[in-house]
Amino acid sequence: MLLLVLKRLANAVVVLLFVALLAFTIFKFLGDPVQLMLNPQATQEERDALTQRLGLNDPVPVQFVKFVANAVQGDFGMSYRNQLPVMGVIAERFPATFELVMVSSIAALLIGLPLGVFAAINGGSFMVRVAHIISMIGVSVPAFVIGILLILAFSIELQVLPAFGRGEVVDLGFWTTGLLTSSGRYALIMPAISLALFQISFIMRLVTSEMLEVLRTDFIRFARARGLRARAIYFRHGLRNCLMPVVTITGMLIGDLIAFALVTEIVFQWPGMGFLFVQSVQYVDIPVMAAYLMIVCCIFILINLITDLIYVVVDPRMGATAIGGSNVR
Amino acid sequence: MLVDLERPGGNPMTNTTTDRPDPSPLLSVRDLSIDFVTRRGSVRALDRVSFDMVPGEILGLVGESGAGKSLSGNAIIGLIDPPGRIAEGQISLDGRRIDTLAPRDMRKLRGRSIAAIFQDPLTSLDPLMRIGDQITETILTHLPVNRRQARQRALDLLRAVGIPAPELRIDHYPHQFSGGMRQRVVIALALCADPKLIIADEPTTALDVSIQAQIISLLKTMCREHQTAILLVTHDMGVIAEAADRVAVMYAGRLVEIGPVEEVLRAPKHVYTAGLIGSIPSLNRRRERLVQIDGAMPRPGSVPSGCPFAPRCPKRIDKCAERPELLPIGNSQAACWRAGEGHSYA
């Protein structure tokens, strides 16, 4: 287990270096930072001084090493837009996105898994057909359309939920949470639903097709012959055996949402990372974009690591092969 | 080496190795017919099959692929795959009709009174669950015991089926066992609630020959010690000769001959049975070549209305256009118009 983690971390370092190179390249060749940071009336002396201060006269490899060394310490420089440290700006936005994504993902799993199992068991029934049509809509209608429809219905017509923002938040020092105040929780409902709808539909369809495969296997047939109760057959033996792809896909969905929930965040004016990213693109705030790239990469690596560890927990065969152990005979 | 497992709700049957069906059989299958209903109409896959089994008996059910042997077994445990359905006839266990039971009640019977062993031990076990958990889950489903007692029983079962070091192995996963050991685990699973009848569908087909013999001998021991009847479905006459008390021969969805193993093997009454026996290679009996039955078994839906074997039968007579019923002859029963003549297929 430990060996597996170490192996994955070694891989992660290599991947991160590549991404750092990419981020650095953007940083280096996309626009002139000196021009962007100073006002147009600045003198040539001021420009030279800043160029010197930013280390832009150093050879390119040296600049890259400095970039990586700073990045490791969490220093991605100053945001061009508001002259604050990039890391602080992102750290401030991260909890909003993280809470939104986690709430919608957990809801999606809690709803999508049982729905998928139900649909697999009751194949041609009327309810299942309805669920399939709804899930079709869920997969194909973009989240922002659903978000706008939700705002129309619940904020403008019924006026029960806030249309934008995060509500009141509680500052825990290292983390700001909206989950502890009622206005924060209300504000979370609609963005979470509009994100979760796609996930629910996706997970349900995935579970259904995987379950139909598993239910055809011999060990399910043998479980029936052993006289086990239907619930044990479907959940303990059936669902558990189709969790692997569900874990993979859910991990990817979560990573994807943390990084790119930006459309939903804009619709609901949610102060998260996606919203920040869009703002920084508008202002050509390159340090923020570069840092964002690195952080998204770290998140994906972390999620992949967690997914791998869940594999080992779910499937005993994985542990043996992943660590390179042999089977006992 | 075999521990005596407690029989919950004990059934103190005295030793029975009767060749003739008992007046009060354990299992009674009467005129069982199964149809497969498709869009293009229904096809009869099993046609008026009748047989009885007494407690503690091993009845071999033999025939070619598609003859309806597995289907008969599946019908008894109530697991016929759709679109198959019982068209007529009845199945009774201990005098109680079971083919008309509600799915709920049939579920309680499965694993409790009737257990099953399937062909492939590699795929019969849930790969993600420790074998001990699979066994205790089955015990807890059927018997009024607590978790600790169930685990103790699981240990006893594993020991009884010959798993070495069961205290250690009980917490292993299926992939940590070899094929033969896995089939032993499957047998332990079938024995969980001390069933009266085990349907063993090709239990040795997927195993090495040397392991086959061990598993057959284990089944026989279990059958003797627990008075469990076994319906041994196989296409292997050698397995039948080794294990069964009686044998039933199936052809194209019909039962064509049934009787004590020695008698059927020595003096088959049905021409098809004679052909099957002649096609077994034997080390003692060197021959130029093995017997081969020409042609192929008719597919369900195109079985002739008379004797199903008639088109391939070398001893066909005009009478064979009429359907022969299963009639007693000697200690056996056979559905052949020329059953009285004695056959050696050559």
Main traits of this protein?
heterodimer; A: 329 residues; 15 helices; disordered C terminus; B: four-stranded antiparallel beta sheet; 12 strands; MetI-like (chain A); ABC transporter permease (chain A)
What is the number of helices of chain A?
A: 15
Helix tally of chain B?
Answer: 11
Question: What share of the residues of chain A lie within helices?
Answer: over 70%
Task: Find the count of extended strands of chain A (DSSP E, 2+ residues).
Answer: 2
CATH topology of the domain at 87-273 in chain A: MetI-like fold
Give an overview of the whole structure:
The complex is a heterodimer of chains A (329) and B (346). Chain A has 329 residues and is mostly helical. Chain A is 75% helix and 1% strand. In chain A, strands 1-2 form a two-stranded antiparallel ribbon. The longest helix of chain A has 36 residues, at 86-121. Chain A is globular, with a radius of gyration of 24 Å. In chain B, 29% of the residues lie in helices and 22% in strands. Chain B has eleven helices and twelve strands. In chain B, the strands form two sheets. In chain B, strands 6-7-8-3-9-10-12-11 form an eight-stranded mixed beta sheet, with helices on both faces. Chain B has a four-stranded antiparallel beta sheet with strand order 2-1-4-5, covered by helices on one side. In chain B, helix 7 (179-191) packs parallel to helix 8 (209-226). The longest helix of chain B is centred in the middle third of the chain and has 18 residues, at 209-226. The A-B interface holds A 217-219, 221-230, 232, 236-237, 240-241, 314-317, 320, 327-329 and B 77, 79, 107-112, 115-116, 118, 120, 123-129, 137-138, 141-142, 172-173, 175-176, 178, 186, 189-190, 192-193.
